[in-house]
Amino acid sequence: MRGTEGHRTIDTLLAEAEIPGEAPSGHGCAVTRGHAVPEPPAWPPTAARGWRYRTAREQAVHDLDLAIALIVGAPEAAAVLAGLADRRRADPEGALVFACLLHLTGHREAAQFWWQFAAGGGSRTAAFCLCLYHRSLAEFRDADHWREQAARLARTPRPLRTPATGPAPRCDLLLPDGIRRDLLRQCHRGRHPRLPAAVEAVLNRLRVTGEDEDFGEIPQPAPGLPGELARARPR
User: Fold this and answer.
1) Which residue of 53, 173, 176, 214 is 20 to 30 Å from 225, comparing CA positions?
2) Please, what is the end-to-end C-alpha distance for the chain in angstroms?
3) In angstroms, rounded to a whole number, what is the distance separating the alpha carbons of residues 175 and 181?
4) What backbone torsions phi and psi does residue 212 show, to the nearest 5 degrees?
5) What ranges does the record give for the region Disordered, renumbered to this chain (predicted)?
6) For residues 192 and 201, what is the distance between their CA atoms, to the nearest angstrom?
């Protein structure tokens, strides 16, 4: 997914925070193999890199909303989520996408759990989401911790994955085009993005584990979840 002029992508947000963007991971759809988040467009000459909001907290809220919209709308979001949900693989990229979906449906503490899971698996984008999440709560010491973790992960080489054999996976999108565009539209209008009720219902039906001491109830990704989300339609 390419950004239009003036739109900020994940890598742009990372660059503004002086955190290098995500390196290729080596699996996913053939057309965009290795990219779990969208590639950034070139900055237009007139694009201002200053903050749009009055406080660091307000800016972080907006940047996190935009990052989430870009992550769930990325071409490989469905494939990496399926790796986590269908095969029960401890995939940090799948956990990153799942966390973003939970945050969109208001499960903020559960989203934090899955972002931490993804960051622990080496996802610097998840660490950056945690930085923004804590800044949005004015928890600046925790935000600085995750910013440092994102920078550390950027310097840590990730092991190469064994290339998949057989036919290339289908590049099905996680969410219908209209929903993905609407999430970005809400962000660029300064609103908190929300999924349609039909999509939220799919996520709210997920099985939860026993209540965690720190994060409360933690929804678990169910087999077939990407397909259910793709079939959900606004009424």
Assistant:
1) 214
2) 26
3) 10
4) -80, 145
5) 212-235
6) 18
